[in-house]
Amino acid sequence: MCEECRARGGGRMECSWKTVLLLVCASLGVQYTAIRTLRDSLSGPCQGAYRCQSRHRGDSRWATSCDDSWAQTDSPRKHILLFATTRSGSSFTGQILNQHPGVFYVFEPLYHVQQAFTNSSSRLRRSLDRRALLGAYRDLLLNLYTCELHFMENYIRPEPQDHVTSSFFRRSSSRALCSPPVCVETGDKMSPDPPDETLCAKKCGPLNLTSASASCLSREHVAIKSVRIPEVGDLRTLTEDPRLDLKIIHLVRDPRAILASRMIAFSDQFRAWKIWNATGRQPRYVDLSQITSTCKDMAASAGTGLQKPSWLHRRYLLVRYEDLAFSPQVKASEIYRFVGLEMHNRVRTWIAKNTNSNASSPSEWNYRYSTTRDSRAAAENWRLRLGFDIVRTVQNLCNDTLALLGYRLVHSVAELRNLSHSLVEQGTFQSVT
Ligand SMILES: *[C@@H]1O[C@H](CO)[C@@H](O)[C@H](O)[C@H]1NC(C)=O
Ligand SMILES: *[C@@H]1O[C@H](CO)[C@@H](O)[C@H](O)[C@H]1NC(C)=O
Ligand SMILES: *[C@@H]1O[C@H](CO)[C@@H](O)[C@H](O)[C@H]1NC(C)=O
Ligand SMILES: *[C@@H]1O[C@H](CO)[C@@H](O)[C@H](O)[C@H]1NC(C)=O
Ligand SMILES: *[C@@H]1O[C@H](CO)[C@@H](O)[C@H](O)[C@H]1NC(C)=O
Ligand SMILES: CC(=O)N[C@H]1CO[C@H](CO)[C@@H](O)[C@@H]1O
User: Fold this and answer.
1) 296 within domain boundaries
2) Is residue 105 part of a domain?
3) Where in the numbering of this chain does the SRCR domain appear (predicted)?
4) Residue 72: pLDDT over 60
């Protein structure tokens, strides 16, 4: 029975068919929820077919379509959002999703929205405009989750011609966008690892958004990484959208580590901080507001998530980057369990290759965005690099966030530099809602 069920589900639905189905599902919201609840409460391998037959036997036409849809919802379409902040380990974490062959992964599409808004007008900094920007972010996410990649054309500059663009941000971070059918020149196996920005563009030529949309539809799931949404509350309408089954992976990291990483990645912006780090004396013009708001947003989102509001039920997972870096396989399987997907072997292999090896020389890597070979050392490296005075300042600015997320304060340089002394609390940290 199960084989038959899979075989039937194997064929792809037509696009229009799917749309009809979505509308029907939306209008049957209550039933839909009931069905989902039922599915969740059972664990047999082939409930999909059973459920369809038993629920919709009456109307044979509907039953047929339902059979197909539910066979497919044996692995229903997931809409995964890796919700993070800059330099919190999101490139690495994103790769763990990107490696799954059934996942269509997009690395920070909201970049284009922000660029378009930032350039269009200076008055966009006001709060009304912040709402507009967040609305545009959500619109784009919704369109991408439904594989309408053409929607990106509203924001990509220069404007794509004939649905083709050379300016798709960080295209190379996505396997799907650098392999057939989107890229005809190179096989999936040839995808370099870590992704090579120039190689993908060179081999594949400009990106055809029509064929990218087709590739998206042909994969079972969509995962998007973003560092541009301030708070999880800004995503509420998407979690409630009946067209989506949104799964939010909230990635957090020790703000002291985030700051140290930003100082290196964005050294122009952080010149004053670097002077402070080098001299041990705080320059008058250091901008403390960015790290402060990073901490506030992180704590606000985690606070919301841990309160388990009903709109986040089964949709929110809090992940500390440190936990992932210290036990990548264990934590990655937790992430996969949460999103409801099998952890494919390719994911396991990728993690093994990218977290333990000593082989590669750092010069091969695009440091700013590359993932890392020795994830544990990388996650703790800030403790050897950041001046104690700065650490103390961040601890004062972010004390509530550090306490909430289970990061210990240090009270001396010796404590800071002693890596045998862990700053990451174990056990007490409640991570799943
Ligand atoms: C925004 O403006 C800057 C400076 O004028 C320019 O370099 C950049 O390409 C523009 N970005 C977009 C997306 O239009
Ligand atoms: C983009 O891809 C679509 C579908 O594969 C194709 O029909 C179209 O001709 C392509 N556009 C260009 C400009 O190559
Ligand atoms: C801070 O200064 C130390 C030397 O005192 C240096 O090794 C380290 O790289 C600096 N850290 C950053 C983030 O610039
Ligand atoms: C953080 O610092 C503020 C102000 O100094 C203090 O009121 C608050 O209790 C501290 N929070 C924690 C968790 O220590
Ligand atoms: C480093 O920390 C460990 C664990 O807390 C402690 O046992 C050890 O004495 C510390 N080493 C130094 C040099 O302080
Ligand atoms: C643990 C590990 O991967 N060790 C490797 C480190 O690099 C040398 C030289 O490339 C290899 O011989 C080791 O096996």
Assistant:
1) no
2) yes
3) 35-75
4) no
What residue owns the CA closest to ligand 1's atom 7? 119
What separation in Å is there between the alpha carbon of 143 and the centre of ligand 1? 24
Q: How far is the CA of 74 from the centre of ligand 1 (A)?
A: 45
Atom 7 in ligand 3: residue holding the nearest Cα: 385
Burial of 278 (0-12, 13-18, 19+ CB in 10 A): exposed
Q: Tokens 């050392």: give the residue.
A: 377
CATH number for the domain spanning 225: value is 3.40.50
Q: What ligand has the least distance to the C-alpha of 169?
A: 1
To the nearest whole number, what is the mean pLDDT of the chain? Answer: 79
pLDDT of residue 17: 44
The boundaries of the domain holding residue 191 are 79-257+308-373
pLDDT band at 356 (very low <50, low <70, confident <90, very high): low
Which residue's CA is the closest to the ligand 6 atom numbered 11?
A: 359
Let me know if residue 137 belongs to a domain.
yes
Residue 224 CA neighbour count, 13 Å, CB half? 25
Ligand 3 site-directed mutation target among 386, 391, 393, most atoms within 8 Å of CB: 386
The answer to whether position 51 is within a domain reads: no
- pLDDT, residue 126, reads 56
R_g over Cα of the chain: 23
Q: How far apart are CA 277 and CA 300, in angstroms?
A: 29
